[in-house]
Design a protein that fits this description.
Structural class: alpha/beta
Distance between the termini: 18 Å
Oligomer: single chain
Order of helices and strands: HHHHEEEEHEHEH
Largest sheet: 6 strands, mixed
Radius of gyration: 21 Å
Low-confidence stretches: 1-9, 249-266
CATH topology of the largest domain: Nucleotidyltransferase, domain 5
Shape: globular
Amino acid sequence: MYLVAAEMASCPVAGCRCRDRTACYPSDMTDPEWEVLEPEAEAVMAELRRGPGGRPMSHDLRAMIDAIGYVTKYGVQWRALPVDFPPWDAVYAFFERWSARGLPGRLVDRLRGRLRVALGRRELPTACSIDSQSVKAADTVGAGSRGFDGEKKINGRKRHITVDTVGPLLAVVLPAASVQDRDGACPLLAALRERFSTITLVWADGGYAGRLVIWAAAVLRLTVTVVNRCDDTRGFVVLPRRWGPRLPAGLAILWTAPATSDPRAA
């Protein structure tokens, strides 16, 4: 990043002015969004501080989260972060620490609970919908974790997601695109049962019919209800309980960078 004089720096880290930056990219949070997110993010940061090792973060928390949002939105290399963000290596280290301890998931849980309560629902869901979407993988994704979806003609991975009746994500798994829906959903439903003991009902499309329904009932005590499209239906028709996963899947296309494990690559 471009260094500035020490007397001009607003951050304890020499040459960094992250505490003076203003939101200027479409991926940046607005002030109302940050007003909602800040107390939840600070609560998660408190959990991180209680963990072993490390030193307190010197950079601005909002700038850090906006930097991660920039990489996610535009798929740039970490090293290509604009100069008004904290140094890229600090942002990546922050991202790694959060991810390794499952803190992003806890942050999502907090926000989802607040949303459900605000809508007059119970904090924990009792039903959900599942769906899948095949996406192309970046060149850095190894052959062992990618595959070819013959129906969609896509070489990459498949997102299996589950959302509650309001819409927020509950769980995600990323098998190879060659894995059939009913097989890819097994680890998804297992993760769902582990995290949410309150859920008893799952809606799904015809791709999940068959042995998955029997297995989920016998092993996980989950009732998987398949919502099929009528044979005589023509054109686009909104099916009951099938709309839920569509919005998160669509947003994932807009917001998810190509899959990679290299901190220097997009």
